[in-house]
Design brief:
The complex is a heterodimer of chains A (326) and B (336). Chain A is α/β, with parallel strands linked by helices and 326 residues long. Chain A contains twelve helices and 14 strands. In chain A, the strands form three sheets. Chain A has a seven-stranded mixed beta sheet, with helices on both faces. In chain A, helix 8 crosses helix 12. The longest helix of chain A is centred in the first third of the chain and has 15 residues, at 6-20. The mean pLDDT of chain A is 97. Chain B has one domain (17-255, 292-319): Rossmann fold, CATH 3.40.50. Chain B has helices spanning 17-42, 57-64, 80-85, 90-97, 131-144, 163-174, 194-197, 222-239, 266-273, 277-287, 293-316, and strands spanning 72-75, 121-124, 151-156, 179-185, 188-189, 192-193, 213-218, 243-248. In chain B, the strands form two sheets. Chain B has a six-stranded parallel beta sheet, sandwiched between helices. In chain B, helix 4 (90-97) packs across helix 11 (293-316). The model of chain B is unreliable at 1-12 (pLDDT under 50). Classes of the chains: A alpha/beta (326), B alpha/beta (336).
Chain lengths: 326, 336
């Protein structure tokens, strides 16, 4: 199986879907002639032309609005936000329009669109380029929200998102574009509503997604060397939130850590923990431990930034503490 | 770009007798529909917010009547008349106001969220300025698929002060999209007069920032509105040249049914009512000997009967099934 990084896997998914369906087109800031801020759309402008790879002004509300209106007239737009931080400028279009149109018009029209947006920090980009907002969108009925953390899932979920009849928030991460892995060629679809156990283990469960999945897998390898068997559940499907694999794992291990890159308060970990308490309280041997970003606007200073985001060491220390091993 | 407002049209303006009578009928239907809506709202048959089109009939009918069935309309929350003018049945609109399953949006939308895919009435949106970028997207889809259709994006004067308005005009011109932006300037954004909210009170002038055709028309003169809209729709359809049309009009009623209307002078309201578009067209038809008092009376009876039938239909229609609360959250659950 070919080995690709996530950037290449996303590019392949976009290209294959554009070839398969003439209704698919891309729009966003500098995705065309410039080849994309993070080069995810590299080569597509050259191959498909400006009609299907539409460079827009730096004006997020018109990007999302254009995608919605095109979707309502039968196209399948894929809008790129340069970072998820910028979509806050267009939050009205995402929440009040895209998410609600199908319902508030009594099912009279579908809004099949994908908004790709990289989140996450770690590149010294400061408070306005480094945050993660997937929980904002996962809060909203009518949106689907996914956040893959492997190249195969990136490809398979993006293809599935483009074929879905609903607005899908496709959360990428600037820190994972270079992550490599096996990627099936051609038709490879990963359902948007299925989470999955990425690594089996018996002693505790780590629920993570996107870049934190990579961190969790690294931590699990370190813990293994320490005689601790960690199971890693990929929570890539955030809305609808598939709790199946996580609950199955908790019933086996009795101990859980959730890891997200964003702030913990009102976050993804809070939701996962809550569902575990509701569904599997009696299976728990300890309270759910939640890891997330320090609750600060991301600082620029390299050292401060490094201690802002959760890393492998945080997961390892938390795991040991949960098992009384510190 | 035109730099002066167009004068009101006189004479038949190239419209046939049946078209002229059609405009009269449509305006009167909206008037009678809205009067009945107010009545039913006061009887608590209709809930939520309720914004009426009374006074704006010429601006609505003069613009929307220039469109073809396949053309799209995107609207705002004061849109009962917009839906009617695009051909949506009065009974479906009234049923939606009643929150019934037979309404345009199956009772899920209400007064501010009417919709009809069949009539390409692409919805009422209740966030000021929100629908303009969406209309732009449909314009892009038309060009993308090389279709002969046009999009009409209708909004109030208040919407021209929000960023989405400017972003939309910018790309509509940049990408050469077949869109007619129609500003129904009824003088007030809720209770705030245009001159207190916009640095430029003549809204048509805002088009010049985007090198776009800008026009201002007397929104109380349906023939003038129709004449200028015909031209703007043609340039959108044939040359994909977008435009901004400002229809200067007035709402006789408050912003919504719950507005005590303390910010306007009674004389001002009276003055505008003195220029009533429906009375004016009626007189015009009589002068041209295209209709007599009896003919106009007959039209009134017909549209009044249509509105009565709409109320009866709404009254008798079923409520949505509570078991269907979650239906339409996602498109995949259609069958559910």
């Amino acid at each position: 199986m070919p080995v690709l990084n996530i950037r290449e896997a996303l590019n392949q998914a976009l290209r294959e879907e554009m070839i398969r369906d003439e209704k698919v087109f891309l729009l966003g800031e500098d995705i065309g002639l410039y080849d994309g801020s993070f080069k995810v759309t590299r080569g597509l402008y050259k191959e498909f032309g400006e009609r299907r790879v539409l460079d827009t002004p730096i004006a997020e509300e018109i990007i999302v609005g254009t995608a919605i209106g095109a979707a309502m007239a039968g196209l399948r737009p894929v809008a790129e936000m340069m970072t998820v931080n910028f979509i806050l400028v267009a939050i009205d279009q995402v929440v009040n329009a895209a998410a609600h149109i199908h319902y508030m018009f009594g099912g009279g029209v579908k809004v099949p669109l994908v908004i790709r947006a990289p989140g996450g920090g770690g590149h010294q980009l400061g408070a306005q380029h480094s945050h993660s907002h997937e929980n904002w969108f996962a809060h909203v009925p009518g949106l689907k929200v996914v956040a893959p953390g492997t190249p195969a899932d990136a490809k398979g979920m993006l293809k599935a998102a483009i074929r879905d009849d609903n607005p899908v928030m496709f959360i990428e991460n600037e820190g994972t574009y270079g992550v490599k892995g096996d990627v099936p060629e051609g038709e490879h679809l990963v359902p948007l509503d299925r989470n999955e156990i990425k690594r089996e283990g018996d002693d505790l469960t780590i629920c993570a997604y996107s870049r934190m999945l990579v961190v969790a897998m690294d931590a699990a390898r370190d813990l293994e060397a320490d005689g601790i068997s960690a199971e890693v559940v990929d929570m890539r499907a955030l809305r609808p939130l598939d709790m199946g694999p996580a609950l199955e794992s908790v019933r086996k291990t009795g101990r859980v850590i959730t890891v997200e890159e964003g702030w913990r308060s009102f976050g993804v970990g809070a939701e996962i923990a809550s569902r575990i308490y509701e569904e599997a309280f009696d299976d728990l041997d300890a309270p759910v431990a939640r890891l997330g970003s320090a609750e600060v606007p991301t600082p620029y200073n390299k050292r401060l930034e490094k201690i802002t985001f959760p890393g492998k060491a945080d997961v390892v220390v938390t795991a040991r503490a949960l098992l009384g091993r510190n | 770009m035109k730099t002066e407002p167009r004068a009101a049209a006189t004479g038949k303006d190239g419209l046939s007798e049946s078209e002229l009578l059609g405009l009269y009928r449509e305006m009167l239907l909206i008037r009678r529909f809205e009067e009945k809506t107010a009545e039913m709202y006061q009887m608590a048959k209709i809930g939520g917010f309720c914004h009426l089109n009374i006074g704006e009939e010429a601006a609505i009918v003069g613009t929307i009547s220039a469109l073809r069935a396949a053309d799209y309309v995107y609207s705002n929350y004061r849109e009962h008349g917009h839906a009617l003018a695009k051909g949506v049945e009065a009974r479906a609109v009234m049923a939606e106001l009643y929150g019934k399953e037979t309404g345009t949006s199956k009772g899920r939308g209400g007064s501010m969220h009417l919709f009809s895919a069949e009539h390409r009435f692409h919805g009422g949106y209740a966030i000021v300025g929100e629908a303009l970028p969406i209309a732009v997207g449909t314009g892009y889809a038309i060009v993308y698929q090389d279709k002969p259709e046009v999009v009409m994006s209708i909004f109030g004067d208040g919407a021209t002060n929000i960023g989405a308005f400017h972003e939309s005009l910018n790309v509509a011109k940049l990408w050469k999209l077949p869109i007619v932006f129609v500003c129904i300037n009824n003088q007030y954004g809720m209770g705030t007069a245009v001159s207190r909210a916009s640095a430029v009170s003549e809204i048509w002038k805002k088009a010049c920032a985007y090198d776009m055709t800008g026009e201002r028309v007397d929104g109380m003169d349906v023939l003038a509105v129709r004449a200028v809209t015909d031209r703007l729709v043609s340039q959108a359809r044939e040359r994909r040249e977008p435009s901004l049309l400002e229809c200067v009009t007035y709402r006789y009623k408050g912003h919504s049914m719950s507005d005590p209307d303390t910010y306007r002078q009674k004389e001002e309201i009276k003055e505008w009512q003195g220029r009533d578009a429906i009375l004016s067209l009626g007189n015009h038809l009589k002068q041209l000997k295209l209709a007599g008092d009896q003919d106009l009376e007959r039209i009134d009876q017909e549209v009044t009967a249509e509105v009565e039938e709409a109320v009866k239909f709404a009254e008798e229609s079923p409520e949505p099934d509570p078991r269907q609360l979650y239906r339409y959250v996602y498109a995949d659950e259609e069958a559910g």
